[in-house]
Predict the 3D structure of the following.
Amino acid sequence: MYSVVQMPNQLKPQDVEAPEQDAGLFGVDRPGVAWDWMMQTGQPPEGDDWVRPQVSEAWYRCIEEYRLSPRTSLLRPHAIMDFENGGRTAPATNLDVRTALATMAFNLQPVLRDTSVSLLLADSAGTLIHALDAGSNLGPMGRRLVRLGESWNELIIGNNGLGTAAVLREPVAFDGKEHFSSVLHPFATVGHPLFAHDGGLVALLGLITDQRSSAQTLLGFVRIAGYLIETNLFECQAPGAFMLRMRLNNIGAGLTGQDCLLDGLISLDEEGRIVGATRTGLNLLRAECHSNILSKKVETLLGVAIGDLRACASRGEPIELEIPDGWRLKAELIVRRRPEKDVVQPSRSSALKETGRAAAGLVLGRRGKAANAEPWRDAVLEAALQKAVNLQKQKIPMLITGESGVGKDHLVRRIHAEGVRKGRPLVLVNCAAIPRDLISSELFGYVPGSFTGARTGGKTGKFVEAHTGVLFLDEIGDMALDLQTALLCALDSSEIVPVGGSRPVTVDVQVIAATNSDLPDCVRKGAFRRDLYYRLNGAQFWLPPLRERPDKLGLIEHLWEQEVKAQYVDEHKALSAEVWDIFERHPWPGNIRELRNVLRSCLAMTSGPETLVSDLPNDFLREMSDSAQAEEEGEAGLSSYAKWRPSPESKALADWEADAIRSALAKTAGNISESARQLGITRATLYHKMARLGLRK
């Protein structure tokens, strides 16, 4: 029996479906017809007339090598399990590299803002480790696909942008029914492999969107983004005492595409041996793979010794190199680790390297901190803070956006404390908490006798209270339209008129507004004034939700340590591996506010040296379970607990109950009364459950 079959040349009338974006000859969705044929025959189609060779080869791998069946109506993505050791496999990319990559990917979020595109980052095994705009516009199926910990490995879910990029080691894109799994048919997926300095696959950068017609456009975007991230990672992570930055004298001489836009980088040790190279650097050296150049001396390949390169760099002279086939290169030697007393031009990427290291933070979370770990820094907040402090000097209005609980008020307090108006008043106004009839008098004040019940001496109002300082208008999206007009006039003229008054009062305030609403959408719907939006939006800062922060694990550990100190806990307390696993995958709808409450609660419940799953608040666990059930749209499936526990098989409810009782008994050394208290049940109920489950003290 042949592994592939020939598609018929003539289509019967009933085979012709409604045209789609990828319709071809006769208005037929050719990949769709080919996929339906594969469903019927169990074999991929032959020839390039129906699907691209890349697609047919991927389908062949799915059927012949992975033994996946196209007849399966729904292939559920799931993390690869380590059945031999009885748990989920550890991420294939170490944590500091993962965090550095997530930080670089996070910097792409302004480009993808307000689109239906989600950016994904997976480790080299295809397990999702980071997601930006995690499926907010992709519907329930898309949100299920972008859950952290899910596998995009080709042998699990069939061909897709990320998984196939790992197999082919090149950028790829698939659209609709070009995917083997029907789970991915509503989407386009794009992937780009990210390589380490030695050519090893370190991670996968990908995109998923429900706008299928944009697959090829997104492929171009992910190519450029992938090359830039790979280059930045090389500068941050590659070993070596020196880095040689090279480019062609004549760009049109040989390289094309992204290689023309990027410098080729080569990392050298102190003896001048090559210890790493980017792909552009590899191409400039006319080498097919890293093994052809690693450990070789730069003198052998470029005809110039490391001493001569260092001498030219010290004198500030340009370095001209010539390689076989007549290519001439311009080169720049950068000292990364000074072996002696050289004074050489510093790296142009030093700021990036420091940011990458700070973001990576050497925070090893569940694995413990490195011996030389620096204090944790909130790179996301500090990046916004530095810009905001500079803007405050020009009194430019600022708008801070983000979900509830991401720390907008904390950022405002930091801006005030470190800006030019520190020591002056900081006045906070929650526009959603003040009744509509009172907010005008709260902001602008009122004169004596202006209305029934007014104070005898009148009231100054928040604008006057904030004079020479900062006025923080929180939840600005909930302000009434009529008051928006008065606020706009006050901002434009720097004058306010108290309620019941006639004489304007001049005020000098720095206005910072914040909202968790989609203000552009409110403007489109007529609920928010367009001119006020642009007046407040002198500079906008978006704070990401906790689930999308690249330094999420570092932030959790930092807040945990703060909570331990705040509660004056003397003995060492740590979060168990199971709890870390839950924290990493939880959607955190309440963001940092929810995280603080959860950490405070579980610390109070922890009696041993480690916080266990049973110490977590019940509503927190229920929240994740409800989220998973909502994503499944009522379908029967694995409980979300099965994703947390190190067990490759689903468990019955009785098994979870037994585990909870065993954990409580172990923590209390068999004390029934204390165990019952921790479980929230009576002693009689605990005895009854132990008898039913066959458990002993």
User: Anything to note?
Assistant: The first strand starts at residue 5 and ends at 6. The two ends are 61 Å apart (CA to CA). Confidence is low (pLDDT under 50) at residues 1-27, 73-89, 339-368, 633-651. The longest helix spans residues 215-237.
